[in-house]
Amino acid sequence: MTTAPAPVRSGEPEQARPVPLRRNRDFILLWVSAGATALGARVSGIAYPLLVIWTTGSAGSAGLVGFAALLPNLLVQLHAGAVVDRFDRRRLMILCDLGCLAATGAVAAAVLTGHLWIWLLMAAAFAQGSLAIFYRLAERAAVRHVVPVEQLPQAMSGNEARTQAAGFLGQPGGSVLYAVSRSAPFLFATVSHLVSLCSLLLIRKKFQEERTEQPGNITAEVREGLAWTWRQRFLRNGMLLISGTNLLFQVVSLALIVIIKEGGGSAGVVGVVTAVSGLGGMFGALTGSWWIRRVSLRGMLIGGTVGWALLVPLVGLTDNPLLLGLIFLAAAMIGSITNVAGGIYQVTVTPDRLQGRVGAAMGLIATGASSFGMVIGGFALDHFGSTRTVFGVAAGLGLLALLSLLLPNADLPGFPPESDPEVTAARTPVVPAPAGPAAGPETKTPSAQNREK
């Protein structure tokens, strides 16, 4: 995570240049905290369907647990954004870690004592998913307060690489831990949240600007964030497109486990495949800035959707772990690149006071329907088999690829859309004053693999 020397901001003396990110204590602590939380979530996230499928053999039951884990994207997201914008973000993240620690600890205890019920797994998964939304929105909004504006692109690329690394290590790690002991993944996740909690307690800087206005009606605030997001044509249409891909990739992710199990593979094989896909995500994150300089944001979304539509049919034609790993590697790389580009665009056009609510509105639009993907996937896999289910998903992605051609144009930060006065005006609040806080938090658009899964 090295950075090139940043230009001096207007009104700042030469000696006020920011230190490299690797020497920014608070950023590193925040980066480690979010990384530990993401790693714990990935380890426990892959363990839930493994536990259900290898214990009961029912893809439908696994789909119900997956539905509970993703349902907060639909029910919790909007009000979570309003809470993030009105309360102390650091304290909120601490409470989230404590709650996740309790949820994963309860599942580990249930497995160890042999008292395991589907409803308990659903409740724990729902709690984890809900708290993860609060944590994610608060962390995104916090980045701009620990990183100078000049270093924001590097910080966001580093954060995306961190998320991909968590997937690279967490998903295969969860599979391996599950092979060792059914409770091990949940015990590991509990320790990860404890590490995250300790890192947060060591951070000195505040995660938000001082609020001069009194909090109003929370429903009105939610409406304000949703209305602002809906007025941004590219954000709105792009998130609706990604919503469809996220829903369909929930089906593909569940199908992957079933395909490997039907082919005689173990939970460890699932981990290997997801590890390979994690490499693709890391490569995409590290090359994101290269693509941004050469391809328009609209072009990235169109190309990404077309790429996914071409890749998914291949999943239904093989149960070879190596080939499946390469397919998911390419899909994850596409998603990671669009995450970096879309995050830079969103953070530049959003005022600080709306960061939580806009992030929540985008998340609702993009991932709100994803929970139904697990239920649909479980039903389809039980009744139609993995091959026909995957081909059905491929047909849906092909339709979305055609619809992506209707996306409007959007300029990336550094190339302001002069023809769009609303977006140009929205940029104004994030221009740094000489004595003010640094700009924009990291945000990311949901992608093919829906990184929070």
Structure explained in plain terms:
With 453 residues, the chain is mainly alpha-helical. The protein has one domain: Growth Hormone, Chain: A. Helix content is 72%, strand content 0%. The longest helix has 32 residues. The protein is globular and about 60 Å long. The protein starts with 24 loop residues before the first helix and ends in a 26-residue tail after the last helix. InterPro entries: MFS_dom, MFS_trans_sf, TM_effector. It is a multi-pass membrane protein.
Tell me, rounded to a whole number, the average pLDDT: 77
Shape call:
globular
The number of strands is: 0
What is the CA-atom radius of gyration, in angstroms?
A: 21 Å
What's the story with the biggest beta sheet? none
Q: Looking at CATH, which topology would you report? A: Growth Hormone, Chain: A
Number of domains: 1
What is the CATH level 1 assignment?
A: Mainly Alpha
GO molecular function, one term: transmembrane transporter activity
Keywords: Cell membrane, Membrane, Transmembrane, Transmembrane helix, Transport
Biased composition (Polar residues): 444-453
Protein name: Putative multidrug-efflux transporter
